[in-house]
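Reopening this one. Same input as before:
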Amino acid sequence: MSDHVRTAFKAQLAESKRVADQGMENFHIQVYLMNLSGLTFDEIAEVFNTRSSTVTDWKRKGEEAYRRREQGSQPAGEDPVRSGEREPVG
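Same output, byte for byte:
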């Protein structure tokens, strides 16, 4: 394989990983918001056919990512949370 093809493949793989990581972070945020809206860990676990302890981990990761984005450390346009779905204040 030539160097330029190898370089292009590496760039494509890096971009695919970035997109996958972003998708997983968005998923975790959605789990956090589902729980915040009133769904229990058991209800969410049932939807995804997994254990509630797994959902607990997803929720924790989602809350961390949500807080980072709320603090402005996420580039504009990449926030999956619409303005009408922000966490209530108080």
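So the earlier flakiness isn't reproducible anymore. For the record, The chain has a mean pLDDT of 87.
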